[in-house]
Recover the amino acids of this structure.
């Protein structure tokens, strides 16, 4: 059990932690006692978010698009349908849109208003994606944001930022790294990072994995 | 509403600080909080847009100083009380004090699959789309005090219709329980310089997903 009052440790984070633990536990208890929820269902849901849903699904999608030109075409035409056809996910949400990077164009995804993110292919968004620095600067200083991630693009690369202000959801299709000719989809998927599918990174290169 | 949540283009928040090997949740309560919020939406206690409004209506200082799931916990508590699912006294007590129960649905394991998928918000068209691809449009200069998905930084600026995404539930109506009121949704592309001025990187473009009532011909 957590102590009820944890204010003496001088840590803001620590005090939020215990306060939130108690607040959320109280809410769950009341809602369960009233018969709205079954806590066991929450357990199963959380397990799905921790294990089944995540960027490994998106990585498979990107790897397939790199390896299979017909799939790539289908993905760009209708990402919901194309991703559904892979059978990785029970049901892909509507209006999933894949946007393709080219040598002249770099795409970046943001939600300036809240935290919209393509959960089914990338999982829950990381803290930075939901943070004020990212949400404020992605739309007016994307090169500065990319620099925070250690990424510098050529000055003549066009940067396209997609603000997720409705129920459409975006995933970036990054460029396939050079030196991966003939690789299997499985091997290619190991190059695909979460950030490269949000547009705040590039895929790993063949030398980055052994 | 012109709230603190509408952050696009604001200055002063500092660097983006990615966390290495970030876990899905940083504490067990975050996971419970996420699941509770999803579940209450799934059983119809409130809709997605009311939920978003519930975050936006947090006081600005609370919004800025609470963690992400901290905001979700506050929203959960506020909406549970607002929509009468439980009383503030019950939450304070940590137990149900009454048996009143405005909703009949209960969320169990059988209802899980529906909540693990994003909702479907496309709807049949009520009328022909007013704009076509390539049309120049201006995002309206509007400042509704209630929930809207038109970000402040786009208002008054001219862009081009790049794609038509179909007819969708209109969040501005849905958040008020004024019905789904489906509206055409467009991807509208703006030049960075149109949004941020002439000193802006000429290679920058930004798009928003804009509902037809938020646009006018330009």
């Amino acid at each position: 059990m957590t102590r009820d009052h944890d204010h003496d440790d001088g840590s803001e984070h620590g005090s939020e932690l215990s306060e939130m633990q108690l607040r959320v536990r109280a809410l769950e208890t009341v809602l369960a006692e009233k018969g709205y929820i079954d806590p066991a269902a929450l357990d199963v849901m959380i397990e799905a978010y921790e294990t089944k849903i995540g960027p490994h699904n998106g990585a498979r999608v990107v790897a397939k698009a790199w390896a299979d030109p017909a799939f790539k075409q289908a993905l760009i035409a209708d990402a919901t349908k194309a991703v559904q056809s892979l059978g990785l996910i029970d049901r892909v949400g509507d209006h999933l849109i894949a946007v393709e990077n080219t040598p002249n164009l770099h795409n970046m995804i943001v939600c300036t208003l809240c935290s919209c993110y393509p959960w089914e292919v990338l999982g829950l968004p990381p803290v930075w994606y939901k943070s004020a620095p990212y949400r404020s600067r992605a739309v007016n200083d994307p090169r500065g944001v990319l620099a925070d991630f250690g990424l510098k693009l050529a000055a003549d690369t066009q940067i396209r930022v997609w603000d997720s202000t409705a129920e459409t959801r975006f995933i970036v299709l990054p460029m396939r790294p050079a030196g991966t000719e003939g690789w299997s989809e499985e091997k290619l998927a190991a190059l695909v990072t979460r950030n490269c599918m949000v547009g705040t990174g590039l895929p790993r290169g063949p030398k980055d994995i052994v | 509403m012109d709230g603190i949540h509408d952050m696009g283009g604001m200055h002063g928040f500092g660097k983006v600080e990615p966390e290495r090997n970030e876990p899905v949740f940083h504490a067990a309560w975050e996971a419970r909080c996420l699941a509770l919020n999803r579940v209450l939406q799934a059983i119809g206690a409130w809709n997605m847009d009311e939920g978003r409004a519930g975050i936006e209506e947090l006081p600005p200082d609370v919004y800025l100083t609470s963690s992400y799931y901290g905001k979700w916990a506050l929203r959960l508590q506020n909406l549970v009380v607002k929509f009468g699912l439980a009383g503030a006294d019950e939450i304070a007590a940590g137990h149900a004090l009454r048996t009143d129960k405005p909703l009949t649905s209960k969320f169990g394991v059988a209802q899980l699959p529906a909540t693990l998928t994003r909702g479907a918000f496309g709807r049949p068209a009520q009328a022909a789309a007013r704009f076509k691809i390539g049309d120049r449009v201006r995002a309206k200069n509007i400042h509704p005090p209630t929930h809207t998905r038109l970000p402040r930084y786009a208002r008054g600026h001219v862009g081009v219709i790049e794609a038509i995404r179909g007819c969708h539930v209109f969040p501005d109506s849905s958040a008020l329980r004024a019905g789904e009121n489906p509206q055409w949704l467009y991807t509208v592309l703006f030049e960075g310089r149109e949004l941020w001025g002439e000193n802006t990187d000429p290679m920058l473009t930004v798009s928003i997903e804009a509902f037809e009532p938020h646009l006018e011909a330009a």
